[in-house]
Amino acid sequence: MELTPRQRLIVALDFPDVAAARRCIDALGDDAGFYKIGLELLFNGGSELARELADQGGSVFFDAKLLDIGNTVERAVANIARLGARFLTVHGTDGKTMRAAVAGRGTSDLKLLAVTVMTNLDKEDLKEQGIDLSPSALVLARSRMALDCGMDGIVASAHEAALLRQELGSDFIIVTPGIRPSGSPVGDQSRIMTPEAAIAAGADYLVVGRPITQAGDPKLAARAIVDDIERARS
Ligand code: C5P
């Protein structure tokens, strides 16, 4: 079934504690229904909040970026699936980790997203790891491997979305952070794109943090982004 523009917006709950996250969720009300919980909040009540949101019919992106031996990853993913999360990130650096995640998800509805190359790494950082490839070539190779392993999609910069769509087809999920509506502060992001351009480039879901969470009126900011998504899709 075709997603509504609102279902394509994932709000990043980058807050130090659950109380602050809840204030944001309450302020957004019906204008958002999909929330990303990352490492900061996961280590301070975030998994309980994930379960609560899922129980109330909300969607949760559990951004745990898992990487460990297969047995541990499989069991961790099984537990996260039981919380009712909808998306989970796993590092896409090797096939063993991703195949273990696929096994751990079992028959649940949890969708597994590969983190291919962290966007803060450049060619020199890869060289330091003994990898003699450009970041974009490595993103493409690892995305291929992720799909071969049975992963459902990838987290990618909107700048890579078009190439990935073109090379890998339409049957996988692309989730893109680094979104900035025109005129909103860039902050520490570098390769940004507007919501409209990211959707046009092939993104299925947009992760948006500060442009919504730090806005004077978060509801209005979320609504404007949903309108942008709608415009790009029509
Ligand atoms: O506030 P902002 O919109 O920049 O937040 C973006 C969110 O997406 C943050 O939770 C950040 O950790 C996450 N993210 C990112 N870039 C990546 C992967 C994840 O900004 N490459």
Q: Any overview of this molecule?
A:
The chain is 47% helix and 16% strand. It is α/β, with parallel strands linked by helices and 234 residues long. It has one domain (6-233): Alpha-Beta Barrel (TIM Barrel). β1 (9-12), α1 (18-28) and β2 form a beta-alpha-beta unit. α3 (70-83) runs parallel beside α4 (95-105). The radius of gyration is 17 Å and the shape is globular. The two termini are 16 Å apart. The chain binds cytidine-5'-monophosphate (C5P). Cytidine-5'-monophosphate is lined by residues 12, 14, 38, 119, 155, 177-178, 187, 189, 207-211.
How would you summarize this macromolecular structure in one to three sentences?
The chain is of the alpha/beta class and 234 residues long. 47% of the residues lie in helices and 16% in strands.
> Which radius of gyration do the C-alpha atoms yield?
17 Å
What is the highest CATH level, the class? Answer: Alpha Beta
Biggest sheet details: 8 strands, parallel, barrel
Q: Unreliable stretches, pLDDT < 50, 5 or more residues?
A: none
Class based on secondary structure composition and strand pairing:
alpha/beta
Helices, by number, come to: 10
CATH architecture identity = Alpha-Beta Barrel
Structural shape: globular
- How many structural domains are formed by the residues? 1
Spatial arrangement of strands, main beta sheet: 1-2-3-4-5-6-7-8
- Tell how many strands the DSSP assignment holds: 8
CATH superfamily: Aldolase class I
Cα end-to-end separation: 16 Å
Pattern of helices and strands: EHEHEHEHEHHEHEHEHH
What percent of residues are in strands?
15-25%
